[in-house]
Amino acid sequence: MKAWLLTGLLLASPALAQENPLLPSETWEDLRQTVVGLDEEPPLNSAILDLEAPMRANDAAIVPIRLTQPTDAPPIDGLTLVIDENPAPVAAEYEFGPALMPLDFEVRVRVDAYSDVRAIGDLADGGKVMSGRFVKASGGCSAPAGKDMAAVEQSMGQMRWKSTMQDGRSIGTLMIRHPMFSGLQRDQVTLLNIPANFIDRLQVRQGDELLFSMQAGISVSEDPVFRFAYDPNGQPITVHAEDLDGHVWDQTFGAKG
């Protein structure tokens, strides 16, 4: 629990230094069409979407990413998070409900090599917008897991939820225990590769209304934490999570946590 609290403090800290704009990327030129399916480069426009990330990560396996919008920005229905130089560059695809607008959403990711980290947002009118930062980090996708296998089995799927008020909006924090094995890590006892197993589908609702959903790859960090601003409707928070091994977890929390 203490580690989760420390994570919350990390994500809730003031904006990180932003002297690290996207750099020219030959990798992205290939990914843009073949992996992300974009024929044209989306415009960079911080008046619609911004991405905050550290210039140099303290831990390549736990890199905080914050996605924000100004209060008057048009809503974003969905978003693709891409880490150019990761073995599986598409870190996650999100769908956002109206209660999360304007967007203020945080997640932690793994970064495997010095890389641009970019978010491509889907606007309601069918347009696209992009934001990103260049992050200096390496080895995040193969970094050893933080717990032994017995501890993993015992705690996998445990969840915590809390909701507080900040600057006039509700701030929800969802924490899920899961090793999010990337398939590139080794068991520290047997030295054998650990098969990939991560939460690849997640859905969070308040009552019947969608807050957000996520379809993830190998790049979301161990014990994922999601922190986001939202407009509450007074209904319970329900979480549905699935991982590659077929585990399914459902949990309901009171609206106030």
Automatic annotation (TrEMBL):
Q: Where is the Sulphur oxidation protein SoxZ domain?
A: 173-252
Q: Does the keyword Signal apply?
A: yes
**Gene3D superfamilies hit by this protein:** Immunoglobulins, SoxY domain
Keywords for the protein's UniProt record, in alphabetical order: Signal
Signal sequence, start to end: 1-17
Boundaries of each Ig-like SoxY domain copy?
Answer: 45-141
Q: What InterPro entries does the record tag this protein with?
A: Fuse-rel_SoxYZ, Ig-like_fold, Ig_E-set, SoxY, SoxY_sf, SoxZ_dom
Protein name listed in UniProt: Sulfur-oxidizing protein SoxY
Q: Which organism is it from?
A: Paracoccus seriniphilus
The lineage is: Bacteria, Pseudomonadati, Pseudomonadota, Alphaproteobacteria, Rhodobacterales
